[in-house]
Amino acid sequence: MVCETWTEKLDIYLDGELPAAEARALGEHLRGCPACAAESVNRVQQKRALQAAGHRFTPDPAFRARIQQNVAARRPARWSRLWFPALAGALALLIVGALFLNVNRDRRNEQRLLSELADLHVATLASSNPVDVVSTDRHTVKPWFAGKIPFTFNLPELQDSAFTLVGGKVSYLSQSPGAELIFRVRQHQISVFIFQERALGNTRQEDAVQTALSFNVRSWSHNGLRYFVIGDASAQDLDKLSEVIKAAG
Question: Considering the domain boundaries, does residue 89 fall inside one?
Answer without folding.
Answer: yes
